[in-house]
Amino acid sequence: MPDQQTEHLHKPFLYETAGSKTAVLMVHGIFGSPIQFEAIAKALGDQGFTVMGVLLPGHGGSARDFSKTKSTEWRQEVHRAFLYLKQRYEHVWLIGHSMGGLLAIIEAVGYDADGVVIISTPMRLKLGFKALRLSLKVLLGNPEHDNEIVHSYRTTNSIQKGPVWVYPLWMPRLAGVLGLMRETRRVLGQVRVPVLCIQSRRDETVSWKSQKIFVDRLKAASVETMLIEQSWHSYFHPDELEIMGKKINRFLEDHTIPLPKE
Asked: Contact at 8 Å (CB) between 147 and 137?
């Protein structure tokens, strides 16, 4: 859980680009942080996009604070940020990681988004020993002994370590993710904007076969997919992260059509 060196990283951000007509709203997943979008946000900013990263309620603080939040609060925060950008920019895109992808799709269905990019977003979970072992290393391991993968998870996890009694109180939050998955399944047929779906075969939490479910159910949307091989759920191999950034940038540029003049 975040220590004194990493806790300050878990902050929302807004990188505004003068003259930009397109903004990108980035939504992290459960236990996550805006910091995990740092590389992609910088790449998009360099290409002239305005980029905002939200910090979902209950994240970036104590384990007890997290236990008190609800999925409705997460949705409200995404909607608040989306409206803020929509009032200032002609085009607004949503990029979500894991649960953030579910929130992005739900927001895009109800409101006038230009498109969605979903990364490691679940339609089917894959929980097992690999995910448990990684969680225990982050929770109980010595940061000085972290490898590159564990370090990535430790850095992007925004919930502070808490007393043992507080963790059972997290169960409703985890159930909230399942509820968002069910709702997303129901509304996928209503998505009418371009969608880029990125999954990893090595993802220890989300089955990469979730990608097929998205493709099959996004009947009314223009869908592109990207399957990566060396990354995990919240760790992205540097080579693949660079490729992802370029793919996302091209996807946004290809599908952002200037509004007709009145």
From this structure: no
In this structure, which amino acid lies at residue 27? V
Q: Where are the domains of the chain?
A: 7-255
In tens, the pLDDT along 37-91 reads 999 999 999 999 999 999 999 999 999 999 999 999 999 999 999 999 999 999 9
Dmax (CA) of the chain: 61
Pair of tokens at residue 10:
């878990």
Alpha-carbon span 118 to 104, nearest angstrom: 8
The fold of the 7-255 domain, in CATH, is Rossmann fold (3.40.50)
Q: Do residues 245 and 40 lie in contact, with contact meaning Cβ atoms separated by under 8 Å?
A: yes
Give the β-pairing of 22-27 and 91-97. parallel
CA distance 60 to 49: 26
Please tell me the pTM assigned to this model: 0.92
Distance separating alpha carbons of residues 250 and 119, to the nearest angstrom: 16
